[in-house]
């Protein structure tokens, strides 16, 4: 009887080097753009007290990964990054400088049905401004949303914008249904409300109210900021049916879309009320969570990711135990000159196998240090793409590799 090969859990993934390199590329691009706008990094624990999230998420609380730990405490895996950020505001209020701009790129966990673009563990990339009540703060975050995707190489990005304050007379249960309008249509929205004990007539009234919402002064202020910041009007538009399903959403709300791609790549809102509930302090808050995985998939689909390779520039081969030290010294000198160099870790392996290893890994050059090279202090350099080779001094070798 054979043992079953271990596999990842559904909704969880491994990332082999080729994919991990792409993920690191996106992470670094995001960080560079966030920091260019003055945002600072923040990290929070994977586990939080369950009570921190309870009552703050809305209909999706059923998706919490929660359990009782060995100390008998009710805990949950990080569902999102906005709620833990609010905890940080309360816990470290005296140590933070307001307005506090933060970015956070960490995994979140949701026990939902795995499907294309949706996983149980996924990375969120958030930016937020705390301490500014003006819609100019919301406008700045929206501006960064546009800036991010344009600089990632997307030819067009459209941010759909609305204001949840314009829905104050509509109950949250109805708003959560309206948020599904593009997925399930008007009839589906009405049926969804009816399931929540809203009469058909009232459901139609709520839907009509949302569809007839007009831009207010807050929306106009945001549009003016974006215009003055140099963004094209085709990059943002008012969308009355945008509702955002989070119960903590208030004030300006928005989602990032790419024409031609289904769904949104990020969504944001103001959430002053949640900060006050969790911290007891009146700290205005606004921000957005970008779907890191969805953004990467979109960039891959549209071929926006450049050729990436973190492999060594050169493999220093080893002939035998006696010459192993010479190979190690050469490799170290190369690294000291900022050349990515690796030595083959087993001097007992034949040279042809070492060359095959380098070729398969995509290493362009191989340094061969045999007895003659060790005596002369020179290095034989082989170009694996052309099979050409030449014997060089270390200085000449560095010039070639640079």
Written account of the structure:
The chain has 402 residues and is of the alpha+beta class. It folds into two domains: 17-174 and 210-301, Bira Bifunctional Protein, Domain 2 (BirA Bifunctional Protein, domain 2, 2-Layer Sandwich); 314-401, Rossmann fold (3-Layer(aba) Sandwich), CATH 3.40.50. The chain contains 14 helices and 16 strands. It has helices at 17-36, 50-53, 82-91, 135-151, 172-178, 181-195, 200-211, 217-228, 272-279, 292-301, 324-336, 351-361, 371-376, 394-401; strands at 40-41, 47-49, 66-68, 74-77, 100-109, 121-130, 158-163, 236-238, 250-257, 266-270, 285-291, 314-316, 341-343, 365-368, 379-383, 389-392. A hairpin with a 5-residue loop joins strand 15 (379-383) and strand 16 (389-392). Helix 4 packs across helix 8, helix 5 packs antiparallel against helix 6 (181-195) and helix 6 packs antiparallel against helix 7.
Helix/strand layout:
Elements: H1 17-36, E1 40-41, E2 47-49, H2 50-53, E3 66-68, E4 74-77, H3 82-91, E5 100-109, E6 121-130, H4 135-151, E7 158-163, H5 172-178, H6 181-195, H7 200-211, H8 217-228, E8 236-238, E9 250-257, E10 266-270, H9 272-279, E11 285-291, H10 292-301, E12 314-316, H11 324-336, E13 341-343, H12 351-361, E14 365-368, H13 371-376, E15 379-383, E16 389-392, H14 394-401
Parallel strand pairs: 1-5, 7-8, 12-13, 12-14
Antiparallel strand pairs: 2-4, 3-4, 5-6, 6-11, 7-9, 9-10, 10-11, 14-15, 15-16
Helix pairs in contact: 3-9, 4-8, 5-6, 6-7
